Prior knowledge:
The chain is α+β, with helices and mostly antiparallel strands. The protein has helices spanning 3-13, 18-32, 41-48, 56-66, 70-76, 84-91, 116-119, 248-259; strands at residues 97-99, 123-128, 135-140, 145-149, 166-170, 189-194, 197-206, 209-213, 223-226, 231-241.
Amino acid sequence: MPIGQKLKTLRNGRNITVREVEHASRRIAEVKADKRFCISNGWLAQLENGASEPSICKLFSLSVIYRVAFLDLVRLYNVDVDEKEKYERVADPYLTQLIGENGDHDGWSVPENSGACAELATRLVRTSEAGNGKSVYVEDPNPGIVYARLGLSDFTMYPMIRPSAVLKIDTRQNKLPSGAWRNEYERPIFFIELRQAYACGWCELQGKQLLIIPHHSSTATVRSFTYPREAEIVGRVIGYSTPCVEDGSNSIELRKAKAR
């Protein structure tokens, strides 16, 4: 059903005429001392016929008059404030982010061409840990494994793990091991939650300082954070899907990211 028809249905459900909507909106505008909240009957007719779109002020007046939640009216126009976080990530692909199987919760999807990492991807449910504002990610229905996408500006593990790679993370392995490793492929890679950001790399704990150590061929530098106040280990990276070479579609973006 067209949006205009949905609005007309809401008006008819309240059993009021376009003239009555005009009078009601005029009273709202007078209290607001702002004529932008006033809706003329002619403009409302155009709106219901699909010939016009409302401003935020007029949409507010309609929500009051029709006794409908303002955000429900906004959603009619394909604007959902619950999707804010989703589109923040879409708007900035340079940031490393957690992802889910679909967009129901976090707005990301595991790409079809990400091989084994996508094979077992399951839905993420995001909750909030009381008191400290940290994000907790719980996998549904199989706890323990979550996925992430490396941002286009994240060259910490380059060239072993290239920007835009999909990471498979075991959240049960969130402690740094004390054992040794024989080569760089055996050395544990961790996914870390920072303040308003995420990171991926080798880690060392020196007192209360967590060091995120880049690949020796990367141009990135070692970063230090107070542990666990500034950085928490989400889990160990147990798999990743990354191209062996930069393909044509990504090379321009990668060059831009390197220059940032």
